[in-house]
């Protein structure tokens, strides 16, 4: 695990690379089409064993982009669900079917987390290819939904990253876009996340140490930027606007 800590400023943010991802990502199982739990308390969408094709993140984003080209709001019901929940699982399975049809890959396999993150990134790049200017007066997006079902110890590790995504995205949406412009798990991604460190430091109390898994952070930043961009475009009418009524079927976010 690669670590680096910033000590030049009062806030200390330690970026812990790959720890959470390796602990939580099991490969998809080879069974009949179903959705079931994996060892990390998350859900895995599985395909038939005959020709299952584990998807890379590039595969997921490409298939998500295809779906969004036909329906730009296709993933909104997924984003309205708490991560790692039964409701998320239902929406991920629905979208997986659409991804398979659109990409013409009937045995495509992915996890709920990757589907959610892939759609968030694809939505930013496709629906909001042109960056949205902040509104005047400012109008923020509601916080990302927090997990409510499953491994609470794991969720406790994720909680600070949700906080950082909610706080940093509206402050520097350009730097979030820079993260999404890099290939995952590359030095370029590490540098782009590192460029957000001063923003992260402004988001937490002085002396705080936060472990960051770059892949989970990327997913959260992508979804936060999608929500924020929709609010800047649509204003208070956006279902993602701070103070807006929850989208149909959405559970309240835990804080």
Question: What features would you describe in this structure?
Answer:
The protein is an alpha+beta fold and 255 residues long. The chain has 10 helices and 6 strands, in the order ββαβββαααβαααααα. Strands 3-4-6-5 form a 4-stranded mixed sheet. A hairpin with an 8-residue loop joins β1 (3-5) and β2. It is globular, with a radius of gyration of 18 Å. The two termini are 29 Å apart. Residues 1-12, 14-18, 21-41, 46-50 and 246-255 have low confidence and may be disordered.
Please specify the SSE layout and strand pairing.
Layout lengths: L2 E3 L8 E3 L2 H6 L9 E4 L5 E4 L6 E2 L2 H14 L5 H4 L6 H18 L4 E4 H16 L24 H20 L1 H8 L6 H8 L2 H7 L10 H21 L21
Parallel strand pairs: 5-6
Antiparallel strand pairs: 1-2, 3-4, 4-6
Helix pairs in contact: 2-4, 2-5, 5-10, 6-7, 6-9, 6-10, 7-8, 7-10
Please supply descriptive tags for the structure shown above.
255 residues, disordered N terminus, 4-stranded mixed β-sheet, 6 strands, disordered C terminus, globular, 10 helices, alpha+beta, 48% helix
